[in-house]
Amino acid sequence: QVQLVESGGGVVQPGRSLRLSCAASGFTFTTYGLHWVRQAPGQGLEWVAIISNDGSYKSYSDSVKGRLTISRDNSKNTLYLQMNSLRPEDTAVYYCAKGGSFDLWGRGTLVTVSS
Amino acid sequence: QAGLTQPPSVSKGLRQTATLTCTGNSNNVGNQGAAWLQQLQGHPPKLLSYRNNSRPSGISDRLSASRSGNTASLTITGLQPEDEADYYCSAWDINLSAYVFGTGTKVTVL
């Protein structure tokens, strides 16, 4: 079954860290770039980061640059998002998505940053 | 990073036609075109169209996308109740080296 499954969300205090994972199955993982996209409660979609198929290229939105790090383990078919120095405004559902056109999405994992 | 501009809402009657717009600039929509995504309430987004008018398999041919200059459009003909959703556009911005999303349009079928 072709799918992406996010995990690792939860409630975390401001300033702390969290690592999200996205497990892929049903397609050739090493062929595709992957994204993280987030959606704050009641708000629109915000692109967070992209990583190329081999991990050699990464790009970030200005709002997360220097605090969030995208990575992947092609031997495990898994995408990651390391989130450091978390802020209340990082509270959102975090989705992973496949390919240059976002042709496959996971169901998301909720991150709540609150004291 | 500035996003792409979409009208907040569009309301049309059953079986009517709705045209959604997405305005960017020459670094994003005008250069690379736009993808269109649909998000039903409580669900993740789903790709409807990419590279301006290529539809993934399983997407209805009632949907068609186009681009004129820095504005992309998504036309939904024969509106059905299941078309009620939020619609987003997205494009790669060559100046920012980043993707940008539209502000989203909520479609209501009356």
Lay out the secondary structure:
The complex is a heterodimer of chains A (115) and B (110).
Chain A (H helix, E strand, L loop, with lengths): L2 E5 L2 E3 L5 E8 L8 E6 L5 E7 L6 E3 L7 E6 L4 E6 L8 E7 L5 E2 L3 E5 L2
Parallel strand pairs in A: 2-11
Antiparallel strand pairs in A: 1-3, 3-8, 4-5, 4-9, 5-6, 7-8, 9-10, 9-11
Chain B lengths: L8 E4 L5 E6 L5 H4 L2 E5 L6 E4 L13 E6 L2 E6 L8 E9 L4 E4 L3 E5 L1
Parallel strand pairs in B: 1-9
Antiparallel strand pairs in B: 2-6, 3-4, 3-7, 5-6, 7-8, 7-9
Features:
heterodimer, A: 115 residues, mainly beta, seven-stranded mixed sheet, four-stranded antiparallel sheet, B: 110 residues, three-stranded antiparallel sheet, 9 strands, 45% strand
Describe this protein's structure:
- The complex is a heterodimer of chains A (115) and B (110).
- Chain A is built from no helices and 11 strands.
- In chain A, 0% of the residues lie in helices and 50% in strands.
- In chain A, the strands form 2 sheets. In chain A, strands 2, 4, 5, 6, 9, 10 and 11 form a 7-stranded mixed beta sheet that branches. Chain A has a 4-stranded antiparallel beta sheet with strand order 1-3-8-7, with no helix packed on it.
- With 110 residues, chain B is mostly beta strands.
- Chain B has one helix spanning 29-32, and strands at residues 9-12, 18-23, 35-39, 46-49, 63-68, 71-76, 85-93, 98-101, 105-109.
- In chain B, the strands form 2 sheets. In chain B, strands 1, 3, 4, 7, 8 and 9 form a 6-stranded mixed beta sheet that branches. Chain B has a 3-stranded antiparallel beta sheet with strand order 2-6-5, with no helix packed on it.
- The longest helix of chain B is centred in the N-terminal third of the chain and has 4 residues, at 29-32.
- Chain B is globular and about 40 Å long.
- The relative contact order of chain B is 0.34.
- The mean pLDDT of chain B is 94.
- The chains are: A mainly beta (115), B mainly beta (110).
